[in-house]
Design goal:
Elements (H helix, E strand, L loop, with lengths): L8 H12 L3 H6 L1 H26 L34 E6 L10 E6 L4 E7 L4 H13 L1 H7 L3 H5 L1 E3 L17 H4 L4 E7 L1 H4 L4 H23 L4
Antiparallel strand pairs: 1-2, 2-3, 3-5, 4-5
Helix pairs in contact: 1-3, 3-9, 4-5, 5-9
């Protein structure tokens, strides 16, 4: 077991302070804190999780690059937002499928946030073709879908994300899995307390979460034609 934690109370303190001082001047004055308390620990976590991720599936990548890798950038995309705050007040790490380079691909995810941290697995906001493939997979073999979201997965994760208010066009409103067919996101979420995230054994904890979520991610890969 690692003797010291990757993420600490200082990680959460920086993110809280950033939320109160979300401007470029403050960030530049505190860039050293960001590097030492957020980005540095996150990169170390990615490096150390890489061999464990390979055991779960060789199709996913733990990329420790500071830019363009598994760690999401701290800068917000404000082009289409009324909120022009320049920085995110959380940090996210996504271990994506090697077949895709964006956040919508199947993957394993860690979100660290003073307002609520969580581990996630699955596909967020899939494009229309991918969404149809997932829905068709549920219709074609509902038993396989049920198996993917039961067992260890359901004991650890809750299916989350947004959903349509009505059944999607082209699907039977009376289908036994219609509530799942309404989903716009296919993600499992497990809430994490700050004590869990700051525990020196958190790498083991996150590893166990990802292994519990792996059957769900495997099903998503199969439905969308990606190897697992």
């Amino acid at each position: 077991m690692r003797m010291s934690a990757y993420f600490t109370d200082r990680t959460f303190a920086f993110l809280r302070d950033l939320a109160r001082n979300n401007d470029r001047a403050w960030f530049e004055d505190n860039r050293g804190r960001y590097e030492a308390e957020v980005r540095g620990p996150a990169i170390a976590f990615i490096v150390d999780f890489a061999p464990r991720l390979k055991e779960i599936s060789p199709q996913f990548r733990a990329d420790p690059r500071k830019s363009g890798g598994s760690l999401f950038r701290i800068h917000r995309d404000t082009r289409f937002s009324k909120d022009k705050s320049p920085y995110k007040t959380s940090t996210g790490i996504q271990f994506r499928h090697q077949a895709s380079k964006n956040a919508h691909a199947p993957g394993f995810y860690l979100h660290i946030d003073p307002a609520g941290s969580f581990a996630g697995v699955g596909t967020w906001r899939p494009d229309p073709a991918t969404l149809r493939a997932i829905r068709d997979g549920i219709v074609d073999d509902p038993a396989a879908w049920d198996a993917a979201v039961r067992g260890d997965f359901s004991r650890v994760f809750a299916l989350g994300g947004e959903a349509l208010s009505r059944p999607p066009r082209g699907y039977d409103a009376g289908h036994d899995r219609v509530e799942d067919l309404k989903r716009k996101d296919f993600i499992g979420v497990a809430d994490l307390s700050r004590d869990r995230v700051t525990d020196p054994a958190f790498l083991d904890d996150f590893d166990a979460l990802c292994r519990a979520g792996a059957p769900f991610v495997r099903w998503l890969c199969g439905a969308t034609g990606h190897p697992f």
